[in-house]
Amino acid sequence: MDTAGKVIKCKAAVAWEPNKPLVIEDIEVAPPQANEVRIKIVATGVCHTDLYHLFEGMHKDGFPAVLGHEGAGIVESVGPGVSEFQPGDRVIPLFISQCRECRFCKSPKTNQCEKGWAADHYDVMALADSRFTCKGKKVLQFMGTSTFSEYTVMNQIAVAKIDPAAPLDKVCLLGCGVCTGFGAAVNTAKVEPGSTCAVFGMGAVGLAAVMGCKFAGAKRIIAVDTNPEKAEKARVFGATEFVNPKDYNRPISKVLAEMTNGGVDYSLECVGNVDVMRNALESCMKGWGVSVVVGWTDKHDFSARPIQLIAGRTWKGTLFGGFKSKDGVPQMVKAYMERKVKLDEFITHNMTLAQVNEAIELMKRGGCIRTVLSVSRH
Fold it and tell me: Which residues does the UniProt record annotate as the domain Enoyl reductase (ER) (predicted)?
């Protein structure tokens, strides 16, 4: 059945309001307009940033929305002016665009782009324009992607074409969590061979950061988490040691300083908690320690004593691990296909889109690393 140029009716998980379960609805997905592609989503991960928008950010103008931003699928049709993609292409939707024309895209210093929702909509986490309607109402596209839907429409500057042989139910994780953590270590921290690293938070992003530290040649990689059950998984990805802050009655930064003769060379905060960010900074070696804020949050100020930075530490942040999205994602898919990076080991649960609320509850209570939802058959 040829659907090109027509409105598609399909299933999607709609967040009608904050702090409420998602509802599986029949939505209408408009055809792609100029420079847009319509994608049949095959699989999607459930990421903490989806939960953040639903339960923490809760911005009133950010609903109703279709959540999900860690997906993979197949191009169904393309709009006028699209030459890079054609129906049947295997793709990963990107929450950071890469227009290749703006001052950010032209600079090797950043992966930001002036186009798309991420340019100035961090609060609402969506653009006002959308190709979705449900029950006569416009439904927002969360992070410009909305992978909790059988179909979505994206601007071509926010889509990466990937190896057609790549398994979509695995490489979907490269749409957010794995690239974010891995890149934070490799691209942003620029971890050096023989160095000592500490990674705070052993969710998917933290485990990917551990993998990135190992990939970069770190000698010691200390995984930090309050859940002792994460220790074994951390070692799978390359951690050499595991520390549980609950086992000590003194600050974790002091514990790490004692373990490392003054502090680690690199620390990565993969939780999204401002107190942990400070701990991560204070765990760094004075003189050259680099601490990277990886966990997504925009709710509270963070603080530190100026002497921490005056003494030579660097505190920096990363979005999507510093990868220029359209360039970086296909490279990471290639690295997975060549067995240079792991993906399968992140996936602890497989469910269907209809089970999305179950998957969200599982993540809320820390019962999974990544749950992958099968969205539509291909």
Answer: 17-373
